C-alpha cells in the first residue's frame, strides 16, 4: 500500500483544474491542493520517524501541527506537481527501506509525546491507511461534484472505440 500511494494520489487529481484543486473536500476542510501537499508533509515525518527508530533506542520524536502546516503559502497555493513528485521519490526510498527490514525491526519503537510508544509495525499500518484515506477524500469529492477522472474517461473512451 505504501508503494501504491503515489500513483493513487496522482490518479486521484489527474485533470483537475486550479478552481477544482482549490475546492475543499468537505465543508470547513482542506482544499484538494492542501490535501495533496499534506500527504508528503506527513509521510516525510513518518519516514524520518522510521529512520530514527531504526538507528536509536526508542527516540522521542517531535510532532508537528499539520493544520498550521496546511495553512502555509506553499500548501495553499503551490503547484501540486511538486508534491506529487516529492511523494513519488519519498515512497521509492521508503519502500526500499521497508523491504530491507526484518520482523524484529518492525518491533522497534519511537516515543510520541502525545501518543506514547509506537512500534514501526503500528506506524506502517497507520500510514498505509493514511494514503488511502486522503486519496478517498479526493475521489469522493470528484464523485460528488461529477468531476470525471480524465484517466478513467480516456480508458472508457478507448474501450468504446474498440467495440
The largest pleated sheet is described as: 2 strands, antiparallel
The DSSP helix count reads 9
Multimeric organization: single chain
Radius of gyration: 18 Å
The helix content, as a percent range, equals: 55-70%
- Calculate the terminal CA-CA distance, rounded to whole Å: 34 Å
Determine the strand fraction and express it as a percent band.
under 5%
> Briefly, what CATH class?
Mainly Alpha
The fold-level CATH name is Four Helix Bundle (Hemerythrin (Met), subunit A)
Adjacency order of strands in the biggest sheet = 1-2
> Could you say which overall geometry the principal axes of the C-alpha atoms support?
globular
Task: Give a description of the structure.
- By secondary structure, the protein is mainly alpha-helical.
- It has one domain (5-162): Four Helix Bundle (Hemerythrin (Met), subunit A), CATH 1.20.120.
- 68% of the residues lie in helices and 5% in strands.
- It has a two-stranded antiparallel ribbon with strand order 1-2.
- Strand 1 (109-112) and strand 2 (116-119) form a beta hairpin.
- Helix 1 packs parallel to helix 8 (120-145) and helix 3 packs antiparallel against helix 8 (120-145).
- It starts with a helix and ends with a helix.
- The model has no long low-confidence stretch (mean pLDDT 93).
